[in-house]
Design a protein that fits this description.
462 residues; alpha+beta; Ubiquitin-like (UB roll); Creatine Kinase, Chain A, domain 2; 2 domains; 9-stranded mixed sheet; 6-stranded mixed sheet; 19% strand; globular
């Protein structure tokens, strides 16, 4: 049996290695899912027989093709990536289990999931891996004696049309689970409560701390909120939640989407709340208890997030569809501005004392959590390290404020990232080049597509 250094579980609902070993040997667990989050924000990996995991993988790693960080959403191999290519032979990378992430998957009997870091076969971290990118920024914060904590508020739309039927219909004429605006409606939530309840309880049993569920504005739109945590834990939970909730919806004969803009009504947001705390003592960093006001560090952090928002938008809004959400008067931001409890600004300040935090309202439901959190933390730390001054707050309607605006298209965001000296400094030019190429691939695919909109306008009348 391999010698494993003890790793504490993140909470009492998650498993230690010793508990997992016992459950495997007793026949309670027969499948171990090893997974990592790819560029598109999807969980990818392998389903291992539990005894094989115990005997051959635990304490080591397993391998997978490095093309998994060099493909498009259809899993096509794409030329132009330095990380992996036909020229380099598409070799392996190692899936290294993070043994702090062992969680039960109650909707899949006898199954646990372990999330992974990615390394080369020589043991070097894969720098373009989203989890590695976030870990690099947490290391920057740790060098200052801080840790970053965050919560992601993720909206989705529920349809009574199963995924397979939705595919067959070309995603047209889907039946939303609610027929009207159910924002905060108890009745509206009750209509879909069998699914919401199953998701909430499954997530809790899997180690997430569930706060609440509520209806939103779009037809069939809802949100389940979870308690904040250290940023890597939050990103791990976020990735697991998106995948598992889709699986649970399928079991109910329904489907859900986290697309930023699935139709002409309100889009799906992913508001990100973040603050810094003392790394060892959980002390306040964003608040001066003596004066009862924001600390200078907090103001520099806000200034940094704002200063880098346009450059880093591709990490917050990683798809062509993401930019359809940025509409005036939609509660999705267009202005790179900040305000105190102002939902028209991209950055909204909330709370005081231990609850003092900034809310980034730019990301949509399609955000890759590791990339979005890495960008937000990197921007904030840049502001602190360069002592950026925070400009004037926006008190009124930021849509009409005249403030600089976020990129209107993925092409604009691509150009901002490609030319960003700050991005090259905080992420590395190799990482920037990788994700600029990711954007190029998506833009080229979209430019080549003939859309329903074009056919409706031009087939007969033009």
């Amino acid at each position: 049996m391999n010698t494993i250094h003890p790793v504490p579980a993140r909470n009492d609902r998650m498993l230690t290695v010793d508990r997992l070993r016992s459950m495997i040997l007793e026949g309670e667990i027969d499948t171990v899912v090893l997974a990592f989050t790819d560029m598109q924000g999807r969980l990818q990996g392998k389903l291992l027989h539990a005894r094989f995991f115990l005997d051959s993988v635990l304490g080591h790693a397993t391998e997978g093709c490095n093309y998994l960080l060099a493909v498009d959403v259809d899993m096509n191999t794409i030329d132009g990536y330095a990380h992996a290519s036909w020229a380099s032979g598409y070799g392996d990378m190692e899936f290294v289990p993070d043994l702090a992430t062992i969680r039960l998957m109650p909707h899949r009997p006898g199954t646990v999931m372990i999330q992974c870091d990615l390394t080369s076969t020589t043991g070097d971290a894969v720098r373009v891996s989203p989890r590695t990118m976030l870990r690099a920024q947490t290391d920057r914060a740790a060098a200052h004696g801080w840790k970053a904590v965050a919560g992601t508020e993720l909206e989705f739309v529920i349809y009574n049309t199963p995924y397979e039927q939705a595919w067959d219909r070309g995603y047209r004429d889907l039946v939303p689970a609610n027929q009207y605006n159910v924002d905060y409606s108890i009745l509206g939530s009750s209509i879909v409560e069998p699914l919401l309840r199953d998701i909430r309880n499954t997530m809790y049993a899997s180690g997430l701390t569930v706060e609440s569920a509520k209806g939103e504005c779009n037809f069939g739109q809802h949100e389940i909120a979870f308690l904040y945590d250290e940023v890597i834990t939050t990103a791990d939970n976020h990735s697991y939640y998106k995948t598992a909730s889709k699986d649970i919806a399928r079991q109910h004969g329904q489907s859900i989407t986290f697309m930023a803009k699935p139709d002409q009504r309100e889009g799906n947001s992913c508001h990100v709340h973040m603050s810094l705390r003392g790394r060892d003592d959980d002390s306040l960093v964003f608040w001066d208890e003596a004066t009862g006001q924001r600390s200078a560090v907090y103001d520099h952090f806000i200034a940094g997030v704002l200063a880098t928002m346009r450059d880093f938008t591709l990490f917050y809004a990683p798809n062509i569809n993401s930019y359809k959400r940025f509409v005036k008067g939609s509660f999705a931001p267009t202005a790179v501005a900040w305000g105190v409890d102002n939902r028209t600004t991209a950055v909204r300040l909330v709370g005081s004392g231990r609850s003092a935090r900034m809310e980034n309202r730019l990301p949509g439901g399609d955000m890759n959590p590791y990339l979005g959190l890495a960008a937000m933390l990197a921007g904030g730390l840049y502001g602190i390290e360069n002592e950026l001054e925070l400009g004037e707050q926006t008190d009124g309607n930021a849509y009409e404020s005249g403030a600089p605006t976020v990129p209107a298209t993925m092409r604009d965001a691509r150009e901002a990232l490609a030319g960003s000296e700050i991005a090259a400094e905080v992420f590395g030019q190799d990482v920037v080049d990788h994700y600029v190429h990711y954007a190029d691939v998506e833009i080229a695919a979209f430019d080549a597509a003939v859309t329903d909109w074009e056919l409706r306008r031009g087939f007969e009348r033009l």
